[in-house]
């Protein structure tokens, strides 16, 4: 073994039930669906959903992932009056809300370790993922369309752009539906 060559070790990092192999200081984008309980009535049709993009740095020296940035995208409003909304590194974080019901992982997109997190491929991939989600049309012409519909539309847009796999999206949407159906009230 060459003593001048730095050693790169690998580790398994678990992200809400998903495990991926990472080299020291690898960067990744993690896309997840976030679900909130309905308020004041927690019925399935009133559960709120959105998408989270976490920019991660995974490292064997810290035995886990460090979130470098959290971007939350959603539509808010009611039938006929929905509008896009976005927050970056919100304080408090969306998952700390008392209405938080759960997080469903969609995909973790590894970024080459040779790229710095402030430029290059990571910025391009993060921008493409964010733009694809943000550009998902808001449908204010159908009364049945809501934030849950928008999440599905946005994720299938990501599939069409080659950012995530169809199977990953279908599994995540199934997980979102499972969380929605856990609502305690029926209207």
Overview of this protein structure:
This protein is an alpha+beta fold and 187 residues long. Helix content is 24%, strand content 35%. The strands form two sheets. Strands 6-5-4-3-7 form a five-stranded antiparallel beta sheet, covered by helices on one side. The longest helix has 15 residues, at 120-134.
List the helices and strands and how they pair.
Elements: E1 10-15, E2 18-23, E3 26-36, E4 48-59, E5 64-76, E6 83-88, E7 100-111, H1 120-134, H2 147-160, H3 166-180
Antiparallel strand pairs: 1-2, 3-4, 3-7, 4-5, 5-6
The whole-angstrom Rg is 18 Å
What is the average per-residue confidence, as pLDDT, rounded to a whole number? 83
Number of strands: 7
User: What is the string of SSEs from the N terminus onward?
Assistant: EEEEEEEHHH
Low-confidence sequence ranges: 1-23
* Helical content (DSSP H or I, runs of 4+): 10-25%
The profile of the biggest β sheet is:
5 strands, antiparallel
First-to-last CA distance: 67 Å
How would the global form be characterised?
globular
Structural class: alpha+beta
Strand order of the largest sheet: 6-5-4-3-7
Strand content: 35-45%
């Amino acid at each position: 073994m060459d003593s001048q060559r730095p050693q790169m070790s690998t580790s398994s990092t678990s992200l809400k039930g998903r495990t991926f192999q990472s080299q020291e200081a690898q960067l990744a984008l993690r896309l997840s669906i976030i679900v909130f309980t309905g308020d004041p009535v927690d019925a399935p049709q009133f559960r709120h959903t959105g998408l989270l993009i976490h920019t991660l740095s995974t490292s064997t020296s810290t035995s886990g992932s460090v979130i470098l940035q959290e971007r939350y995208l959603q539509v808010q409003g009611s039938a006929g009056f929905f509008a896009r909304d976005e927050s970056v590194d919100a304080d408090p974080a969306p998952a700390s809300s008392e209405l938080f019901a759960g997080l469903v992982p969609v995909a973790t997109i590894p970024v080459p370790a040779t790229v710095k997190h402030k430029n290059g491929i990571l910025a391009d991939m993060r921008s493409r993922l964010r733009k694809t989600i943000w550009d998902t049309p808001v449908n204010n012409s159908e009364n049945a369309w809501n934030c849950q519909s928008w999440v599905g539309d946005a994720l299938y847009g990501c599939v069409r752009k080659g950012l995530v796999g169809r199977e990953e999206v279908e599994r995540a949407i199934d997980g979102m539906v499972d969380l929605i159906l856990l609502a305690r009230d029926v209207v």
